Amino acid sequence: MSKSTQKEPMGSKAKIYWAIGIVVAVLVIALLAWNAWSSRGNKDAVAATVGDQEYSVAEVSYYYTAVANNFAQQAQQYEMYGMDMGYDSSLSASEQFYNEEEGVTYADYFMDTALQQLQQVSILCSEAEAAGYTLSEEGQTAFDNNMNYLQMYSVQANMSEASYLKALYGRYMTMDLFRDILTQSILADEYAQVKAEEFTYSQDDLNAYYAENADALDSYEYRYCYINYKVDQKTDEEGNPIEATDEEIAAAMAEASQNADAMIAEVQGGAAFNTAAAKYVDETSAESYSGDLEYNHKTDTLGSTVSSSLSADVSAWLMAAGRTPGEIASIEIADTGYCVVQFLGRDKGDDSYQTASYRNILILAETDENEDGSAALPTDEQLTAAMDQANAILVNWNEGEATADSFAALAAQNSDDEATKDNGGLNEDVNRDALSAALSGWLFERGRQPGEAAVIEYTDDTGNVVGYQVVFAESFGQVRWQYQATNALRSEDYNAWYTDIQEDYPAALTDAAQEIPSL
């Protein structure tokens, strides 16, 4: 037996910078049959200029191909779900229109996007050099990690690293060029962050921003469900579906409205929201509502998240001034049905944090092997054993000094998290949005205090429980609304700075670039 496979180390901050943030997978090769490079073109010819910097056909081709690859992958993913982005990856980008009315082909769009990305990297690297900023130690680690990924992917494809790069980016791509572009990408990303952090704000600045954006910065608690209209599906003599008439849809919407009103009456009469919802939602949703009384009960949810996850009308109702806890309403969702939403609370969230430092002791469950040699998911017995081990560690800590130092010592002795065990399981300044739901839910629960500890589930990337972790709350960072306000102000100021500095670095394509889509 062996331990369950651990996810990416929790303390790792490395990024995949390939294709300016685009993760390159082995399947990409299958998508690029249309991108065979011919012998035309001069790889050293100047294809673009940014300020006084010149970029060769080989360099611009990288950015173009990266954009095209990413778009092709997205199109294929959409197709898997029966959706159409309007792009056919089996055809040349020059043969199909991105905007037919304006005569813009996908090749034109890809080239324009590539030039924008190249310009951004060029500007940031030039500004970094002028400021005396060089790649950090963390940036070098990110570079090394990306090169390791290149080696891993090339091995999986049964190719050399050089051949793999050429398969992805064409015959002009070399290892040296890829290293240069990767270094520039990481440096640009780092300096953008450094520049943004130069913009700082007083408490008065944050308070003023809050006053103008309270709806987006406040935290909300609410419940909701959707009661969709139902129309009996009719078919013609040949079994083909017949589209519902406007009259039939109107009648079905009226019935959905009546069901929503009936549900509201039950809740106002004392029934639990989810118990009532289970009677009126569709069959699939009913199982979720009846099986979990907390299903779609949202707590400590930022207004900006509310706006992005619910319709404009529902969001507006929740955020309306004077709303009192317990209010409930039915709101029409066009061509769908009705949303029943209950307002439970709203506050500024001065005790709600965006970042925190914590320590963890990861206990991965033992696993068996599948017939193909891969690790099987843990059995119930194996998970119970892991949970018992985690609970025993927590009891041991509680019965001892119960300090950060004593927790760190236990992490060094017991944790399966290789990335953090040697520094006492410490994860510093972690953003709540980067954590699993279970870990974020416990660590950032309102009222959580430094020094508290608990055992929570640990899941793999697909949500399977593969172990448990003992978690210790070390400290908390910036209050969430202040963090969001700071980021919003920084984004505005950084974009203004970039727009201004961009004028000093005009970007243009040369005639040589026009051949790149067909190379």
Describe this protein's structure.
There is one protein chain. The chain is of the alpha+beta class and 519 residues long. It has 18 helices and 17 strands. The chain has a four-stranded antiparallel β-sheet with strand order 9-6-11-10. The protein has a four-stranded antiparallel β-sheet with strand order 14-12-16-15, with helices on both faces. Strands 3-2-17 form a three-stranded antiparallel β-sheet. Strand 4 and strand 5 (104-105) form a beta hairpin. The longest helix has 26 residues, at 106-131. 32% of the residues are buried. Residues 5-39 have low confidence and may be disordered.
- Biggest sheet layout: 4 strands, antiparallel
Detail the poorly predicted runs: 5-39
Number of helices: 18
Class by alpha and beta content: alpha+beta
Which percent bin holds the helix content? Answer: 40-55%
Give the mean pLDDT: 90
Give the total of beta strands.
17
Radius of gyration (Å): 28 Å
How far do the termini sit from each other? 52 Å
Oligomer: single chain
Give the spatial strand order of the biggest sheet. Answer: 9-6-11-10
Strand proportion: 15-25%
**How does the overall form come out from the CA principal axes?**
globular
